[in-house]
Design goal:
mainly beta; single chain; 15 strands; 4-stranded antiparallel beta sheet
């Protein structure tokens, strides 16, 4: 089965790590109450189809840990980010007892390309307060507010084109046509008896 193309990523950077595990879930905004059923379960990366994406980090990662939650769909106008902090009691070996310390839920409306934004979660007494930064980035060859526009640079027999900042195809200098595969000959080159395969020439 062919893997779907990843269109972008949600980046998370936390200046302070707490607990043994931190789980990040990217959820559809309207499905948050249904997805909330996972609250209280031990963290697991295989939580789809409910979450749009997920990532897990060990608390020992320290300050500045950067995580990426990849998405293979058009970036929605709004979605929810749930952050669960877990504590491990019976040793550090996988399979030890886990206790959820806190959960923070934020509504994310960030657009791809916008700068880092700091999120705060003021927990109740005896719980863990969280502070971290988020941003959204389109993957290479994807553009637009939803990372849905696809454009790839090419310079070969089939065309010579680049992409502008908005993902629109532009012919490289010296080339023209729908597919940017027609060379622009030097001025004065006869269109009937001349022609060129390389820009700026004439045969």
């Amino acid at each position: 089965m062919r893997e779907r193309r990843r269109m972008g990523e949600l980046h998370l950077q936390r200046p302070h790590a707490a607990g043994n595990f931190v789980r990040y879930l990217l959820l559809p905004l309207l499905l948050l109450p249904l997805c909330g059923a996972s609250h209280g379960r031990r963290p697991s990366p295989g939580l789809r189809p409910c979450p749009l994406g997920s990532a897990i980090a060990r608390g020992e990662g320290g300050a500045g840990l950067l995580l990426s939650v990849a998405f293979d769909f058009a970036w929605p106008l709004w979605c929810s980010l749930a952050v669960d902090v877990w504590e491990q009691h019976n040793g550090t070996a996988p399979g030890g007892d886990l206790r959820q310390v806190t959960r923070a839920v934020h509504v994310i409306g960030d657009r791809p390309g916008e700068p880092w934004r700091t999120l705060h979660h003021a927990a109740a007494a005896n719980a863990t307060a969280l502070e971290y930064r988020v941003r959204v980035r389109c993957h290479a060859d994807y553009y637009g507010a939803d990372c849905k526009r696809w454009c790839r640079r090419r310079d070969d027999h089939f065309g010579h084109s680049e992409c502008d900042a908005h993902g629109r195809k532009e012919c490289m200098p010296g080339w023209a046509g729908e597919y940017c595969d027609r060379a622009i000959c030097r001025p004065g080159c006869d269109s009937l008896h001349g022609g060129c395969d390389v820009p700026g020439q004439c045969r």
